Amino acid sequence: MAGQSDPQLSLFSAEEVEFIAEDEMVEIVPNLRMDALNFVCGDFGPFFPQLATQVPLWLAVALKKRGKCTIRPPQWMTVEKLTQVLEAERDSQRVFEQLPFHYVEISRLLFDHARDDIPDVYMVRSLIEDIRDVRFHKVETNLESLNERAFALKINNLSAMEVNIVRPFVGRALQAFYKHDSPDLIPDQDRVSDRRPQVANNATRRHLRR
Amino acid sequence: MASEAGEGSTAGMDDYETLISTTDVELLKKAWRNEKAAPEILRFETSLIQRIRGQIQLMEENIEEFAGSGIDPLTVSLYQMDLDRTQYLFRSYLRIRLQKIEKYMFHISKNPEVQSRLSEQEKGFARRCADDMERHLEESVLSKLPDNYQDTVKQSIISEESDMIPEPQLDSFVVCKSRRFLGPFQLDGSDELLEMKPDELCIIHYKSIRERVQEGDIDLV
């Protein structure tokens, strides 16, 4: 329709993915006394100095920006844990390690706003970047093996950002396979054999794609 | 997509849904994500939207009161942030639906089942949209074409069906997460069976899980 040809209509932007990640819970240690907050999105607090409590990331960042709390980095964000994850990621070609669905966004937000609360921040940061690179690379190589019609593809442990990046490509690739492999498109055996041999025979087609 | 939304669902069902998936904002976020990721327009979350609207209004009044009553400005600004986030979700949800309506207006106007998924206001919008578009095409192009090619939805007079209506591509693939264990179910148009464990992530043919998204078993992400 006129003016509405946007193919990305239903995709999430990076900002939107970050917005979703901001609702993940983190632990903070406030340094002020504040009554409980009864938000539309839930009740948090009351807050007492030096008493740790759970709040959504956006609230933690807002308080942190005003110097009202320290943020306790999540358990997976330690040098020890991340080193393990990185090694495991490197060891396996296919399997992805289990990390929080929003690990990219959470760590980004914490690096941006709470770097002084993260022990060994440089090390942690470079580890996360390495993990991200290894994983993206793995995603790319795994995509190369995508070569036939499939109705469902399990992508366990892929994170939100990773999903968001591969979605347009994988979605359309699978749709194309689906379309071209659809039996309705090959109604007439004669025509098929002389016009599109690669579709008529799965083995040949796969071979050609390698 | 928690509640069956709307007219069909009973109050008891709503309570249950609210209990298991915490807040309305959480439900709205789910509805928003589903709506953004689904190729077609989903059922309007009538009761949820009504509740959210009420809560937003209440919070607006509260914040106005706070500002007058000398409460700590920090607290007020935090309440404002929370409100802004909810409003963003709320508007974005409505907006994405309007975009879909604009995109598929002729499809909607020909299809009562799709219309039943819209809210009253959306139905009105869809109708006006289709009327305006029809009039516009009529005046600017169609009236100047040969008689055989003057229809808005048919390529020419010999077309038996309306073959110029953009329709949602149900054949597209979406990314989804199951909320609970889903026993082996058949995928649309194939012999394959698929099993999904809770929280398992999957890229899947939308048509195959369409009903399950509406029923709330599967979330799109």
TrEMBL record, chain A:
DNA replication complex GINS protein PSF2 N-terminal domain sequence ranges: 14-71
Region annotated Disordered, chain positions: 187-210
Xref: InterPro entries: GINS_A (IPR021151), GINS_bundle-like_dom_sf (IPR036224), GINS_Psf2 (IPR007257), PSF2_N (IPR056784)
Subcellular location, record wording: Nucleus
Oligomer status and interactors: Component of the GINS complex.
Range of residues in the leader sequence: none
Keyword Nucleus appears in the UniProt entry: yes
Keyword match Nucleus: yes
Chain ranges of the GINS subunit domain: 76-170
Family membership: Belongs to the GINS2/PSF2 family.
One GO location term (cellular component): GINS complex
UniProt keyword terms in alphabetical order: DNA replication, Nucleus
Taxonomic lineage: Eukaryota, Viridiplantae, Streptophyta, Embryophyta, Tracheophyta
Protein name per UniProt: DNA replication complex GINS protein PSF2
Biological processes per GO annotation: DNA replication; double-strand break repair via break-induced replication
Compositionally biased residues, Basic and acidic residues: 187-197
From TrEMBL, chain B:
Domain DNA replication complex GINS protein SLD5 C-terminal per the UniProt entry, residue ranges: 168-221
Alphabetized PANTHER family for the sequence: DNA REPLICATION COMPLEX GINS PROTEIN SLD5, SLD5 PROTEIN
Domain GINS subunit: 74-139
GO cellular component annotations of the record: GINS complex
Broad class of where this protein is predominantly found: nucleus
Functional note: The GINS complex plays an essential role in the initiation of DNA replication.
Protein name (Swiss-Prot/TrEMBL): DNA replication complex GINS protein SLD5
Keywords in alphabetical order: DNA replication, Nucleus
Any GO BP: DNA-templated DNA replication
Subcellular location: Nucleus
Organism of this sequence: Quercus rubra
Protein family membership: Belongs to the GINS4/SLD5 family.
